[in-house]
Amino acid sequence: RVDFNEYNRFDAINTFLQNTANSCNNCELLDIGTSYEGREMKVIKIGAGTNKPGLFFECGIHAREWISPAVCINVINKLATEYDSNSQVKEMLDRYDWFFSPVSNPDGYEYTHTDTRLWRKTRSENSGSSCRGVDPNRNWGYRWGESGSSTNPCSDIFMGPSAFSEKETANIRDFVLQRASRIRMYMSVHSFGQYFLIPWSYATEYPEDFDDLQEAGDVGANALREVHGVTYTVGHSAVLLGATAGSSDDWAKGGANIKFAYTLELRDRGFYGFLLPKDQIQPTFEEVWAALYAMHNHFNTNW
Ligand code: 0X9
Ligand code: ZN
Question: One cellular component GO annotation, for this chain's record (predicted)?
Answer without folding.
Answer: extracellular space
